[in-house]
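Hi there,

I know you've been waiting on this one. I reran it after we fixed the sequence typo, so this is the corrected version. Both the input and the resulting structure follow.
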Amino acid sequence: MADLQIGLVGLDTSHVVAFSKCFNKPGDPEHVPGGRVTCAFPGGSKDFEMSSSRVEKFTKQVRDEFGVEILDKPEAVAERVDLVFITAVDGRTHLDYVRKTIAARKPTFIDKPMATSTADVKEMFSLAEQHHVPMMSCSSLRYAQSLEAALAEDEKGVIVGVDVFGPMAIEPTQGGLFWYGIHSVEIVNRVMGRGCKEVKATTSEKQDAVTATFSDGRLATIHGLRGAHHQFGLTIQREKGFQFVDAASGKRSWYATMLDAIMRSLPAGKSDVDPADTLEVIRLIEAANESRTSGAAVKV
């Protein structure tokens, strides 16, 4: 069967280079079969330096290295392809892009964060339902091979908690944990499932400590680091012992394993991540951000 055509909306992140390499280089060890990136819209946010300073470089790279055609409208991308990937690094722009591409009725992946508010996420899922469009959003850390392997090994009993650590740089336009903290929050959701009822955050110039309390009494902690290492890891606490997971220890990259999950689900008309999980991730981040400011525990 011919590869599905994939269109990228937003070329201001290194993810678009990683995704294009996975799809468009069949001989690469990270190759993900079944799709090819064929066209893209650059986008870019003028008030967000991490976007505006990189969009030209990444646009040139995906065009020249991977043969991706550059188009002038997100709607044009959606009309030309089988799958839409909204890859803009600025989560504030994603709802507007969905509004522009949803009428083409193409299965849609939205890179993290799906949005920077619960209201935007709910509207995107509502639009997807109205137009019968399968829609998926997540962090690639959810699909780290070492994490999936640890979750599959249940000899030590049920999961009673998790302690996650990772980088937590802050970008003012993205709001607290929405920039890099979302990766650790996604890991918490992947391990613990839904049911977070309260979040308490303690913050300093270089670190954050976030505690999430679940309705069944289990606890999850996130240790966010600034000005330190950039590694992700976690300790899964089980009834009869613990498992330490180095998120980077898998043979395949997080990007490749996430793209594998996308390609086995969206073309079949479904999301590999339940929308309810995505909503809880966003709401947990909102609560953590509120707690970072107030110092008080915040209900989810």
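Quick highlight: Residues 275-294 form the longest helix (20 residues).

Best,
R. S.
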